[in-house]
Amino acid sequence: MTGEDPKLAAYAHPERLVTTQWLAEQITAGRIGGPDGIVLLESDEDVLLYDTGHIPGALKIDWHLDLNDPVTRDYVDGARFAEVMGSRGIARDTTVVIYGDKSNWWAAYALWVFSLFGHEDVRLVDGGRAKWVAEGRELTREVPTPQPVEYPVAERDDAPIRAFKDDVLAHLGKPLVDVRSPGEYTGELLHMPDYPQEGAMRGGHIPGAKSVPWARAANDDGTFKSRADLEELYLREQGLSPDDDIVAYCRIGERSSHTWFVLTHLLGFESVRNYDGSWTEWGNAVRVPIEK
Amino acid sequence: MHPPAESPAESPAELPAELGEIAADFRSATNDLKLQLLLEFSDELPSLPERYAGRLDQLERVDECQTPLFLVVEVDEADSPADRRVHLFFDAPAESPTTRGFAGILHAGLDGLPAADVLAVPDDAPMRFGLADAVSPLRLRGMAAMLARIKRQVRAKLPAA
C-alpha cells in the first residue's frame, strides 16, 4: 500500500509507515472506519489534544488511561486490551494506523504496546499530527462512533521486545542505547530540558550506554530520516549491527519507543528491546551501577 | 439546626465560591464530560492583554506543567485589603489544551478575588475536582504548581504589613 513512496520503500519494513498523502487518500476513498476499514488512532502526550480537533475519522487512545494498568506500574492485561481494541472497532486482523503529537513519541509507544499483544498490522503516519497540521489538512472535532467488535484476549508476550531491570543487569556489556537528551545522559538533568526536573534520585546513564538522542532519527518536520541517513547514524557512527542484541531506554519508555521503531522497523534490526522502566526506575533503584 | 462546631484544624479549608462551584461541576460529571468541561476552560482561557503580548520575559514560567506555561499576577493597589484584587494572566500554546484547561479553571475561579481570598485557597484544591481518573494524577501536578506560584506572586506583590 505504501510502496509508491520511494523514501518509505527503502526501509526494511516499509509496510509499517504511511504518508500523510496516503492517509488523506484513504479518507477521501471512505476507507477509514467501518467493519472492513482501517482504524485511525491518535495517541498524544496531552490527553485533550485530540478533543481540540483531530484527523477526520480518528479515534483517541491515551497512553496512560487506556494502555497502562491503573494500579500496578505495568501495561494493561489481555482482557483490558481486548476491550480497548474491540470498543474502537478493531478486530485482530484490522489495519491500525496511529499518529500523534511530539514527533510521534506516544504513537510509537502505542504501536510498541500493540506489538506486545501481537497485533500484526499496525503502522505510523510519518510526521504525525504536526505534519498533517503543517500541510493545512482538515481537522475536526467530530468524534466517530465505532461499531464495537470482538477482539480476542491475547496474552501479552513481553520477552522479545520489552526489557525489565533484571534483563538490563544481565545485558550489561552488550549494546545499550540511551535516547535521552545529552544533559540527561551526563546526569546534569533528570528530565528533558523544558520539562519538570522530577522523578529520579540519581542522574547519569546505564554503564556502557551510547548516547543517541531520539531526535537524531527525525527530521525537523517530525518525519523519520531516510534509510541512508539512519544507517549512517546507527551503523557507521555508532557501530551497531542489525544482528546485535540491543536495549533502548529513556525516562519512561516513550522516546525509546521511537528509537525502537526506527531500529526494528526502519532498519530491520532483529533483537531490540525497549526498557520501559527506564531512568525513572534505574535512577531510583538501590545499588544498580551508574555511569556519569 | 446548627452544624456542630469544628475547629479549623479539623475541617478542610473551603474553596472560594466560584472555584467551589467549578469543582462540584467536575466532581459530578462522568470522565468524558470532565474532559469536555476541561476543553471548554481551555477554549475560554483569555489571551494575554496587549501589555504582555510577546513579552514572556515579564511572566513566570511554570516548569511543572508537561508543556511550560507562563503566568503573571497583578494585585490592585488599594488601602482597603478587600479592594486589593488579584488579576491573573496566562500564556500556553493551543497544542497544550490540558495545561490551558487547568489555567482556565484557575482564571475562572480566582480572577478578581481579594488577595486574602486567593492566599486562603487550600494547596490541595487541584485534587478536589475528581480529575485524577480522567487525566491521570501525573498530569494534575501542573495545576498544583500553577496555584503555588500564583499564591507566591500574590504574597510578593502585597504591600509589606
Automatic annotation (TrEMBL), chain A:
Residue intervals of the Rhodanese domain: 34-141, 176-291
InterPro entries in the record: Rhodanese-like_dom (IPR001763), Rhodanese-like_dom_sf (IPR036873), Thiosulfate_sulfurtransferase (IPR051126), Thiosulphate_STrfase_CS (IPR001307)
CDD domains associated with the record: TST_Repeat_1, TST_Repeat_2
This protein's record includes keyword Transferase: yes
Keyword vocabulary terms for this entry: Repeat, Transferase
Catalytic activity: thiosulfate + hydrogen cyanide = thiocyanate + sulfite + 2 H(+)
Pfam families for this protein: Rhodanese
Name of the protein: Sulfurtransferase
Annotated organism of origin: Intrasporangium calvum
From TrEMBL, chain B:
InterPro entries: Fe-S_metab-assoc_dom
Residue ranges of domain Fe-S metabolism associated in the record: 25-153
SUPFAM superfamilies: SufE/NifU
Superkingdom: Bacteria
Span of the signal peptide: none
Family membership: Belongs to the SufE family.
Name of this protein: SufE family protein
Species: Intrasporangium calvum
